[in-house]
Design goal:
- It contains 3 helices and no strands.
- Helix 2 packs antiparallel against helix 3.
- The longest helix has 81 residues.
- The chain is rod-shaped.
- The protein starts with a helix and ends in a 7-residue tail after the last helix.
Length: 157
């Protein structure tokens, strides 16, 4: 019986020793596979970083070229506007052409007031002058309000 027990114990030890070596080998293989995957990921990230740097350089070159083109266009435009005047000053804000609403209102109001005053007053000259002045003032106020609304004149704060 002792003999049988010793064979069973020896067999168990032998099997356990073999399985430990197999487990160690499998753990080593797993570690090597993980290291290989990490290395490949690092290489991929380096490649991605290089591609990103190239794309950023292309975009920067395009932006630089656009800025240069715009600067040249502005210089050409300024040179054509100055037409011999070499003072490169900032161009003034573009003013609207034509009569303002205030000027139109003044002229229309003065004309209408003078006509109305001449028709109402028995002394034609005096009525025309008073009507013209009153009409011009009223027309100016109405026209100035229209200018403020359109943005031609800045409103009072």
């Amino acid at each position: 019986m002792k003999y049988l027990f010793s064979i069973v114990i020896a067999g168990t030890m032998l099997l356990s020793a073999c399985s430990n070596n197999n487990e160690k080998e499998q753990a080593l293989i797993k570690q090597q596979a993980i290291a290989a995957v990490k290395d490949s990921l690092k290489l991929d990230s380096f490649k991605k970083a290089e591609v990103k740097k190239k794309e950023d350089a292309k975009i920067a070159a395009q932006v630089k070229e656009e800025k240069r083109t715009l600067l040249l266009a502005e210089r050409n435009e300024a040179a054509s506007q100055s037409s011999g005047n070499h003072n490169y000053e900032e161009p003034a804000a573009a003013k609207k052409k034509g009569w303002s609403e205030a000027a139109k209102g003044t002229a229309i109001g003065a004309g209408a007031g003078a006509l109305g005053g001449a028709l109402i007053d028995k002394k034609k000259g005096r009525g025309a002058i008073i009507g013209g002045v009153v009409g011009a003032g009223a027309g100016y106020l109405i026209g100035r309000d229209k200018d403020r609304k359109s943005g031609r004149v800045q409103p009072k704060n």
